[in-house]
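Researcher: Please translate sequence to structure tokens.
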Amino acid sequence: MIALFRLFESWIDPFRPLPSEAMPKGGVAFLLFFLKQARWPFFLMLIVGSLTAFVEVTLFNFLGHIVDLLDSSDRETFFAEHGWTLFGMAFFVLVVRAATNTLMALLEEQTIVPGFFNLVRWQAHQQVMRQSIAFFQDDLAGRLSQKVLQSGMSAGDFMVNLLQVAWFIVVYAVTTLVLVADLDWRLGAIVAVWLVLFAITARVFVPRVRKAAKDTANAYSGVSGRLVDTYSNIQSVKLFGSLKEENRGSRSAFIRFIGQLKTFTRLLTSIRVVMSLVNGAMIVAIAGMALVIWRDGGISTGHVAFTLSLILRLNILLNRLFNQLNGLFRNFGTVQDSMETIVKPVAVQDEDNAPALTVDQGAVEFKNITFHYGKAGGVIEDLSLAIAPGERVGVVGPSGAGKTTLTSLLLRFYDVEAGQILIDGQNIRSVKQETLRRAIGMVTQDPSLLHRSIRENILYGRPEASEDELRDAAERAHALEFIENLEDKSGRKGFDAYAGERGVKLSGGQRQRIAIARVLLKNAPILVLDEATSALDSEVEAAIQENLQQLMAGKTVIAIAHRLSTIAALDRLIVMDGGQIVQEGTHNSLLTNEDGLYAQLWRRQSGGFLQAGLQTDERVNSSVS
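Model: Translation complete:
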């Protein structure tokens, strides 16, 4: 049996690569995109569903036949006369029915649920991972993960219910219509009217159910996203005493969800009431007509039993079908809601057959670049900057000057709207993004760590590094001592201890030292430091600066800092303001221009604020005295 399980479980590979064709928009096209990748299991499910419906109808035919045999046979000779007939019926029930049910169970539970459900989830995840940084900045992480995970379950449930339940009932209904009409056309006519009324009811309610299901799924995602956002930022919530405000916002999200859910459930109740009336009228009509035809000698007692059994079963199945239709379109609405997020166009894409970036020297050039974040103006306008191989360049300026945007464009988190960015003469838009980012090591002001072990976080830039290289990088980043003393709540220690979500279990300085160790280990030819030591105390910063100087040797460096003292010794300083380069030169040359922006910033950081504070204190003291 285990071998049979494994056979069906291996039919669909859940980690099948995402096809090269674009993931389509539209709920039906989205489903077909995945269905084509698992067509044969679903085709077999279609066949087995038809056989199962035929088997179920045959059972009621057996029942009618047995009633006729009982009505016309002698009790003492009943088994002697009809033993083989009864044996054939028993064989059919025990073997054929069991075989079709077993095959359907294997297809659903061993092939579709673990295979198809996770194929959809995995490829939806792959599609989302292709998206640019802006995609993730514009949405909530909890909402995105919810849509990726629910897309697989909803798409799988939709297809299973469509083929296993809806298709089964359609085949059953058509077979019932044919068999009953064969007994008497009047019975067939009533069944036909019943099916037409069912179709009309479905036509009226299904579009409304589909829209309500989609709106409900969207509102549910909003609740999920709101809660994840609150839990992820619980420190800020506690710090500002904003519990009431957060509960008010969460309550609003719940109220919207509950309102949509009420609209949806009202439709479901209306459907049940209408179907109860229609089905009740049809059962009475068919039962009455069958009895009239029996009285007139048109059909036998067994035929009456057969007809009434079929009809009562059909009533149950049609009610079930409507319930399944509700589930079908609830799932379809969820798929549509997920699809609208997952299938958004990817803003930053590799060109077809893009080559890998090769960095021999590390020259970087920003050539007449313009970038507005898609707005009418602002940020960076027609900026040009050439950085020689191995040159160490500091970028300074007031907040909002465009410093971090410049490095984001170099990493191709966004595409420039005009101009080019070249590395060793290669346009970064023409090479693979993955190889571009492999060539750049970066430490940010607020480094983000994964909720994994410290070892995994440091090795993230170079997974193949040895244990000695790992420890050396941690020691050079002055992180080894505190790492060896770490222990998480699960008892994992040292490099095996988990950092917590986004590194929340570590202090800001510890997170930054882990990030520095990571970039030391990566050892990329181009280095970007965005306030890389801002979270460190002066003693640790001074110790790390020495190792950073060693790391910078032979590399092209772009360092952003608000504390000018940390970059004053670099080869060249670029001063930005309003998306433009307004000054450039060495630290000493820039200080000679006393009216320049750099000199103003330097004076403020070299005692300007302190001096202003002393003058204020003097004025206060003199007024008091």
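Researcher: Any highlights?
Model: The CA atoms of residues 14 and 85 lie 47 Å apart.
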